[in-house]
Amino acid sequence: MKNILCYGDSNTYGFDAATNGRFPWGVRWTSVVQKRLGEDFRVIEEGLGGRTTVWEDPVENRMSGREYLLPCLGSHWPLDLMVLMLGTNDLKARFGLEAFDIAAGAENLVCMAKDFFRKVGKDTPILVLSPIEVAEEIETLPFCDILGGSSAVRRSRDFPRYFRQMAERNGCEFLDASDYAKPCSLDGLHLDAESHQRLGEAVAAKIAEICSDHKK
Asked: pTM for the complete prediction?
């Protein structure tokens, strides 16, 4: 059985903007991946609302993805693939970051993971997902102020370019989540059920391809 770790934020957790709760198993993109790949795979969900790449949030405590990554890798070891989708929360106005800086934060996590994999002696591939774009209507939606309004839209549109460059630079696989998923109309930030389905199917296909190539 192949163990797949999905490390992300509320869009990996499966936050449902309609209920302020969580989409059930079978709806979340991680569970779609599990169903598509079947019983020879085990998908591990490690999504946390508010999680950043590496930045300590001065308002919300314990949100840095860097602080939990190594304990997470250790507790779920052995792993056959790591899927990383973080960066949306780095758009918050209080961080003052551009897409280039956010991708650099994600790169820090990639390097930490690769160093961990080297130390345990297993060449474990990493699939980097660039986060979805923020909706153009964000200025009329609940997360407007915390994201800094329309600047978040502009910065999120640069995610694919910088995350792709980062993935290629570090020998990682890459997928642009915005090619398959869009933010919901309720908050312009989180996936709806339809986008979870589309993203899950795309990620499952990519994982199957990676695992097939990794056997060669």
From this structure: 0.96
